[in-house]
Write a structure and sequence with these properties.
There is one protein chain. It contains 14 helices and 24 strands. The protein is of the alpha/beta class. The chain has three domains: 218 residues, Rossmann fold; 126 residues, Luciferase, domain 3 (Roll), CATH 2.30.38; 98 residues, GMP Synthetase, Chain A, domain 3 (2-Layer Sandwich). A nine-stranded mixed sheet has the order 2-1-10-9-11-12-13-14-15. Helix 4 packs parallel to helix 5 and helix 6 crosses helix 7. The longest helix is centred in the first third of the chain and has 17 residues. The structure holds malonyl-coenzyme A (MLC) and adenosine monophosphate. The site of malonyl-coenzyme A (MLC) has 22 residues, from helix 7 and strand 13.
């Protein structure tokens, strides 16, 4: 056996070949045998269009069973999977493609014309497409192809995926994840969360980020579980399917939205075993309301693109709201000062981590990678944390200037650069303020150039950002001022802006 994660999956798939792997809302089902066959054909298609082991395959498509098969086909063919959020605009995609230089790019046919030009300019030689129903040039004539049966040999340290994560300097960095990284994390989560026969996963997360792909899908695949596959979170559909599910994973927004529904009841979740939350802080109040309504204690865990999952509240011991639990069995964590001095229990500092889940560095950015590692191999997460006397990890804030909106990360710098480039804008400050639904909402303060004050409007600026940035990064509100609040060192006081505008979305849903 080589280090290719797909070999481990195949063992499970063969043992469960007649069992359902994916079921859509309309009842259409693929068994693990059918999934294996489709993955083999897609792997053949990738090879046919020139994909070689180690080549990147960038994929920006809506969630569908075929999107998941394509992910697995990349592994089988020894390629490196590079998922892209469907919300990314043309300029954002242009950056990812020119940085990662994939051999192949699979996009949505509805955007094929726009994106083919961009991909061509980035040197991509094979451009395919796949629509939300599984049709497109990627799957055309697939049934005539012989499924690939062999799995391309990979070393455990060879790359399996590159996932872009927003950069502090305004540009995203590609986190390089190896087969070992993904496999160790999937096995650890499978064990830690007690995956068992009969588990059915309600999968409503997007497939292009760590949570929906490596946490939700990989653990379910390793278990040979059925996934009830929704194209996106839709409270009506989730409520309809919950009685048939055993496990659900979501960002806090999912749980906030479910609690807003009167038909989300104790009886509805009688068949459930586990609710997991992560990607953003779950408010203790939401945790308590959820317990009161359903009897279930949501299991909160913590992770990041560079490491997959890092800590988790326990399955069989006390789950403490407002904490992210204990380090996973094979992960080491410590809290340290900026200068690297390791702190004691209950002291607040930056969380540092190490383990087989930890990534291989940022694609093409060795200096950036070196800056974020300690000499002994610990990675500096940029999250402020403390470890309490009982060993529970608390994430108490962020040292990095990051907004998390509905589970998506937004780096203010990227939005500020976009605003500053708009004619008439002198400077801007972007910050996050509380939002009931999204947790935090992107908000901006703009200073106009002298004489251009009347040329700028809130709507005009939001519309201009929207042409450059994904919708979730675009400010939900823009305010104007004569000057940005700065301290004596000239640094913009974001904390003050956050306080001044904390009621902006009061009551917003
Ligand atoms: C969509 N919109 C958002 C948004 N999602 N705005 C702010 N924050 C968000 N998260 C905007 C769109 O741009 C659009 O605006 C409008 O809302 C409606 O779009 P939609 O697609 O219909 O929204 P909705 O279905 O309501 O999506 C909300 C959501 C979704 C919370 C269900 O964002 C989601 O599934 N989030 C999960 C993110 C996730 O998987 N994160 C994991 C990252 S991995 P307009 O203006 O265009 O009309 C990670 C590591 C770890 O963090 O630990 O897991
Ligand atoms: P990403 O870079 O998109 O993978 O997001 C990772 C970041 O999400 C982490 O560095 C944390 O800041 C945040 N995060 C993930 N899970 C949690 C959680 N349970 N509580 C608080 N923050 C979290």
């Amino acid at each position: 056996m080589s280090g290719n994660l797909y070999e481990s999956f195949l063992d499970v798939f063969s043992a469960n070949s007649g069992a359902p792997a994916i079921e859509l809302a309309d009842g259409t089902t693929w068994t693990y045998g059918e999934l294996t066959d489709q993955v083999g054909r897609l792997a053949r298609r990738l090879v046919e269009v020139g994909v070689e082991p180690g080549d990147r395959v960038a994929v920006q498509v809506e969630k569908s069973p075929q999107a998941l098969f394509t992910y697995l086909a990349c592994f089988q063919a020894g390629a490196v999977y590079l998922p892209l959020n469907t919300a990314y605009t043309g300029p954002e995609v242009a950056y990812f493609l020119s940085d990662a230089r994939p051999r192949c790019f699979v996009c949505d046919p509805r955007r094929a014309e726009e994106l083919a030009t961009i991909a061509g300019e980035a040197g991509v030689t094979s451009i395919l497409n796949l629509d939300p129903t599984g049709f497109g040039t990627l799957t055309d004539g697939l049934e005539a192809l012989a499924p690939m049966t062999e799995v391309v040999e990979r070393d455990p340290d060879d790359l399996a995926a590159i996932c872009y994560t927003s950069g502090t300097t305004g540009r995203s960095k590609g986190a390089m994840l190896s087969h070992r990284n993904l496999e160790s994390n999937a096995r650890t989560l499978h064990g830690t969360w007690g995956f068992q026969d009969g588990d059915v996963l309600l999968h409503a997360l997007p497939l292009f980020h760590v949570h929906g792909l490596f946490v939700a899908s990989n653990t379910a695949l390793l278990n040979g579980s059925k996934m009830l596959f929704l194209p996106k979170f839709d409270a009506d559909q989730v409520i309809r399917l919950l009685p048939r599910a055993r496990v659900m994973m979501g960002v806090p927004t999912f749980y906030v939205r479910l609690l807003e529904r009167d038909d989300f009841t104790h009886e509805l979740v009688a068949n459930m075993r586990l609710f997991v939350s992560g990607s953003a802080p779950l408010q203790p109040e939401t945790w308590r309301q959820f317990k009161e309504r359903t009897g279930f204690e949501i299991l909160e865990r913590y992770g990041m693109t560079e490491a997959g999952m890092i800590t988790s509240n326990p399955l069989d011991a006390e789950r403490r709201p407002g904490t992210v639990g204990f380090p996973l069995p094979d992960v080491q964590v410590r809290v340290a000062k900026q200068d690297g001095t390791v702190l004691d229990r209950d002291e607040i500092g930056i969380l540092e981590i190490k383990g087989p889940n930890l990534f291989q560095g940022y694609w093409n950015k060795p200096e950036k990678t070196a800056e974020e590692f300690r000499p002994d191999g610990f990675f500096i997460t940029g999250d402020n944390a403390k470890i309490d006397a009982r060993g529970y990890v608390h994430i108490v804030g962020r040292a990095k200037d990051l907004i998390i909106s509905g589970g998506y990360n937004v780096y203010p710098k990227e939005v500020e650069l976009t605003l500053d480039a708009i004619d008439g804008v002198k400077e801007s400050a972007v910050f996050g303020v509380p939002h009931k639904d999204f947790g935090e909402a992107v908000t901006a303060m703009v200073v106009a150039e002298a004489g251009k004050e009347n040329a700028l409007t809130e709507k005009g600026l939001i519309d201009a950002c929207r042409t450059q940035l994904a919708g979730y990064k675009t400010p939900k509100r823009v305010f104007f001022a004569d000057a940005l609040p700065r301290n004596t060192m000239g640094k913009v006081q974001k904390a003050q802006l956050r306080t001044d505008y904390e009621d902006t979305f009061q009551g917003a849903a």
